Amino acid sequence: MAASDTIQVSSLPLPPVQYINLYTDENVRRSRAPKPPPPIHDNYSMFGNVFNADDTIIRPLEAQGIKRLYPQHFDRRRELKKLNHSLLVNFLDLIDLLVLCPDSPKRAEKVEDLSLLFIHIHHLLNEFRPHQARETLRVMMELQRRQRIETALRFQKHLEKVQEILQNALQMLPDTSELDTKLSMSTEGMEMDIDSNAEQSTTDPCSPSDRIMCKVIDDMLLSNNLF
Predict the structure, then answer these.
(1) How would you class 189 by CB atoms within 10 Å of its CB: exposed for 0-12, middle for 13-18, buried for 19 or more?
(2) Which superkingdom heads the taxonomic lineage of this protein's source (predicted)?
(3) Is the distance from CB of 149 to CB of 157 less than 8 angstroms?
(4) pTM score, two decimals?
(5) Contact, 75 vs 58, CB < 8 A?
């Protein structure tokens, strides 16, 4: 019974779908959707560390209570190489201590030195983040610009091809003067055929000899019927 009543709390936030389901049109229309979280104006905790809202994105080492190992004005590439070399030397010293004298108190000092070197390397790398963000944005905008130029060029090629097809179709159309001439000629031929048919209908199709023979046969048939 106690195990079933235990409230399970996840260390991770809920999946986004569960938030999306709360923002339906009905909930938004009736003001039932959850309100956005208020902005933070003071301190907040993230990953176990306390941050101030007014702090810069990359805080200086002195603000974090860490001793600086390099000067204020320096060459980042050179300092990173020096820190990497110091890290390797301190790591080899720590191995020697673990092999020769594992119980020596210097072992804790070497571990602290290694931690300080890692913090400095991490801090120098983080200082490149704004430059990386600007460079990433520049590359993205350059890619979008190149894609739009390529799209415009492809559209221009298709437009020129369509214009060429239309021009060829217009050139293949017959001339209007020739079309009028052909129409007039066909109309005149039709009129001549109509006139000839009318003349044939007015003339007698039977010849005189045929007409005489037909009259003789009709007379013979009439005389037979009388008798």
Answers:
(1) exposed
(2) Eukaryota
(3) no
(4) 0.46
(5) no
